[in-house]
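Input:
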Amino acid sequence: MSLATADPFRPPVPTTVAHPAPQVRLAARGLVKRFGATVALDGVDLDLADGESLAVMGPSGSGKSTLLHCLAGILAPDQGGVALRGRDVSSGSDRERSLLRRRHYGFVFQFGQLLSELPAVENVALPAMLLGTSRREATERARQWLASLGLAGMEGRRPGELSGGQAQRVAVARALITGPDVVFADEPTGALDQATGADVMRVLTEATRAAGASLVVVTHDESVAAWCSRRLVIVDGREVRGPLAGAR
Amino acid sequence: MKAVLALAPRLQRSGGSLTTALAVVAFAVTTAMGLSVLGGLLGFIDRADRVPEGLDSHGVSAHENAELYVILATIAVVLLVVPLVSLAGAAARMGVARRDARLATLRLLGVTAREVRVVTAVETAAQGLAGAVLGIAGYGLLMPVWTRISFQGRPFDAGELWVGFAGIGGALVVVPLVAAASALVSLRRVVVSPLGVARRQTPPALSWLRTLGLLAAVGAFGLVVGAAGGMPQMIAVALLVGLLGTVFATLNLVGPWIVGVVGRVMAAAARTPATLLAARRLTDDPRAAWRVVGGLGMAAFVAGCLSVLPMFETTGEDPAADVITRDIVTGGVLTLAIAFAVAAVSAGIMQASSVLDRKREYALQRLAGAPVELFDAARRREVLAPLLLVTGTSSGVALLLVVLVIGTSGVTNVSGLALVLGFLAGGVALMLAATESSRPLLRSVLRETVVRAD
Ligand SMILES: Nc1ncnc2c1ncn2[C@@H]1O[C@H](COP(=O)(O)OP(=O)(O)O)[C@@H](O)[C@H]1O
Ligand SMILES: [Mg+2]
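Output:
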């Protein structure tokens, strides 16, 4: 089974397949975002290729989350634009951008994104149901995703009954169930210890790559960034290039 | 201990100024309504004391009539005590829920259970005290409303409705005490185990055994009605009023069980995310859901009891009897209106605190693209489904009691049933309006794009 023909909604069987020549999937040009007097983003450009994983790094308050929010259509930039597969997606209405996020993106946050009343399997199924998939079908897919991420048998547990690492795996399944183009992760290991964090990063990067999604990970942690194929360092809302970029 | 008490203001702030404000408002409404109702009861007692014994020119004992008013007013108070105490309890719990996580952290840090209890009790009592002070002012402001309503042929004057300095002082003591007690009860979860809150589990379903209490109470009520003829009148009345209160209180036990059943049925049948979410919330914490709809369930019980009202038709033959008839209708409607108002305030406050409790979850769901309509629809379903069922059950039980007392003529009376239905429709509408009042709060919570780890 090749990834090109795989059902994007099912957890793919890991295979080694030659990808077609990568194309730019998500592109940002001259992003500027201000909050009052604070310039959180001061002209950032970025190209994210098909299947690529990018680590956005930088000190606290440097504008990493703001960049992620602009890329993902959560915030509209004050200047500049973002294009998904060549289509401008940064200037739509709040409703349009919300739909864009549901349809095309997946999200993994630091913690607390799972609804505490829903068992794991329903937390994962929810985004698919929001896109109109029937409950039965969405639940079945969610089950498969949980199993493929090593959570078989935990479908009925609620977020409060999962360890931090398990909850993040559920969040990864939730992000991937709709077959997104891009997965955005903001400090996905920020609430975990080193070993668990590495485990979650492995699951996140492998599952995302296998599902054919591109990945943007915001982190200030070198060992987290090491899981990604490329990195972008920003300080005070601007990209920093060159040898200093890796130093923290 | 001193160090922990020094932490109290910090905990207070972490509880959120909005929750504190909501809790104080709830205590204030409880106090204002409680004092007003008590004032009314005292007013009737006062009037009865001043009516001389003996028969008037029509051969009617004015004194006995006046004592009838006292009995009816006592019934009204019994019917209103539970919703009022529920509201105060809801307010107390709200503050605790907001601080749960941090209290659990304190426990993990080695603060003793006793110290956590003291801090919580002191803080909630302080909110209760602030609410009581505001509520006393509210009682004063409401006075001109109550003095417009005529009973026994003339409106009460403020002096008759004045609860006295003892009543005012009592409110200042009782409200903070009830607040602290409710807070301590809801704290048990945190204090029992330091991890109790952090690892939330699906609670086991409530037992159907809860229904037995209600059945027993209704049965006892029926028995007393049957045997009432052979008892001294005062004892029969006292027993019936007591049992009425018991039936009412056992509804509070059965309500959460019903809500849990509704939730499980809904969860199994759910096809949309909103229904599923609403259903899981109901099964997750049926007691909390009952606290939202329970106030109206209680009011529905009152409404069911009041279905007898239109049977008391004015005949125009006996002016004294007509006054009593009209007064019973006035009093019944007034009781119901207060019950509805208290229920609506409870519902609004519970919804607001539910939004605040889930602030982070909601905001992150929105960031991930969940439409705000999901939460609106889930909230409506979460309230409406149990609301309809619970009002149905409560008014049904009340109608049953009515049948026990005065026979089927009590419920075959069309205008009586129309009255009940009309009241219930109004109450449900008021309730939905109250829960919708959390809309702007939800929107402002969702607008936050910066969701800090905090
Ligand atoms: N909603 C907001 N309102 C005001 N200031 C904000 C907001 N979001 C971010 N900022 C500010 O913008 C800057 C960048 O923030 P952020 O992107 O969150 O940084 P990072 O994720 O790198 O820690 C910071 O100075 C922060 O205080
Ligand atoms: Mg950040």
